[in-house]
Amino acid sequence: MTRRVQILVALALTALWGAGIFAAHAGGHLRFLDRLEATLTDWRTQVRGVQRPPDLVTIVAIDDTVVKRGGSYPLPRADLARVVDTIVQFKPKVVAIDLLLVDRSAAIGDATLANTLATGPMVLAAAAIFPSASENVAPGSAGPLAVLPQAERFLLPLPAFADHAEVGIVNVATGQSGSPLSVPMLFRTRDKVELSFPLRVATRALDKPLTIAPDHLMLGDRAVPTDTDFALPITYYGPRRTIRTVSAQSIFDGTLNRDAIENRIVVIGASVAGGGDFYPTPFDSLMPGVEVVSTAITHLVSGDGIVRDHRVHIADALAAILLPMLLVGLLAWRRSALGIMAAAAVMIAWAGLNAFAFTHGVWLNAATTLAAAVPPVAIFAGVQLWAGGRRTQYLAAKSRSLAQFQAPAVQEWLARDPNFLSKPVRQDAAIVFIDLSGFTSLSERIDPDALQEILQAFHARIDKAAVDCGGMITGFLGDGAMILFGLPAAMPDDAARALKCAIDLHRGVDHWIASLPSAIGGQLGFKIGAHFGEIVASRLGESHQHITATGDTVNVASRLMEVAVQNDARLALSNTLLDTADFHGAPDGVLSGPLLAQVRGRSGVVTVWFWRDHSGPGQGATKAEMID
Questions:
Q1: Residues 6+ apart with CB under 8 A from 26
Q2: pLDDT in tens, 110-148
């Protein structure tokens, strides 16, 4: 499978994964993503910071101060009637009582409260009773209202109270973290649909007709964007008491400010410690339920709620599919740090866009997109790393194989410049030739395996001497080799290193032959020639190229091996090489000459010196002494 096909398959699988994650979550599965989304929503809310709410609602709190004064909770109906009566006298738009008035109390108190409720615009709280802890939608339902939370029954206020007020369902929907993230606007039983408490209060306060459209609500001519289940997403303005709050005790003390009530929406609710109606929010570990409800009322009346409607869900679906595909595509486009950096930049940009949208009133789902993006990207990156490791191992093996044929310096040069020596180059260089004597006749008499071992041992000594001195073996010539000093670039000490290599070869091969069985070693000898001068370095061949050197210098170095044999020596050195190397002899060898030698196939003569190991101290001679 080609790399392009592999990438297309990876992108297709990534798109299917993203679509599957989104569909599964939208279908009510993958509930763990709800907890993650709740956590991410808390973070985004904290990043947005505390907001000043539209000053439309006043909460009259039945708090600990009121309970201490009255000595009991719930508040006696006569006291609640006094609170409501005082508020009504200050002309509010609507009075919303976030207390369940479902049980009978003292007859006088109930009658007093019923009469008081008849004096102003009132909305009372009712509760939906569900058969289980979750709000279920009945299977097999049809129509736009099928998605509404289906209650077993509604717990309504006493008829004496409900006859003088409108009623709304006060339940809120909590996420996996326990924090209310939305408030259902409509509830149903098998035969009845009821409005929520916040929606009933907002409708009464705005005095506009309510229209239930298939995917949203209309308050008069203003659309109220809701989630797909007619739930109103809420985002908190700040910690407790960010929405204007006064204690009901100010009513009993006669200190209630008229400005806090007049022409405003007033919500009466409990904030008594231990009362049970508390929820965690991004700003508070415990916020009274009346403030949660008041937040929803403010969103409905002012129209400043956060949007999470069907258009946002379409954007979520596209993000869950396209973002992972983009990340995988970037990793495939650049299988390097650049691809990782590009993918990281895209993720940061997406996170910034998500947070920006949230702070500007659009709630894009973050958990679903992360669940759609992280696994395929992690898997693809892991496969890329695995494939990269395999490729690295393959290239390392090829490099090790190449190292057997090219000097390390040449390998590095070719890696930096693949066109190295694509055109011939003239330069000075030193050439060393070595060849075994008697190998051909020996090969006719001994076992091929034994012959192979001898040849391998001989080549190993040549390779060690060449590498130690920085030379390049341009080729093994059967029972001989050519070593070049001057590539990849000419160096001032090329001649000196070639001379050292020739002497090391002389000693190493001599000792090796002496270590062989006499039946073999007695048949072998060797000859070495070394010269310095101008060469032509180039790459030869088409599909299988090799680096070599040609020219008169190479020919002379090769012919010097014959000169050595003719003069009962094993190492012949040209005068040019010795002069360039600035060599004047050594105490551990004997340098003899000079000899003006005629080289076969070449006109003129070459000045030649012969180097031998001395057999004892004091037998070495310098080049200057021999000339003298």
A1: 313
A2: 999 999 999 999 999 999 998 765 444 444 455 667 778
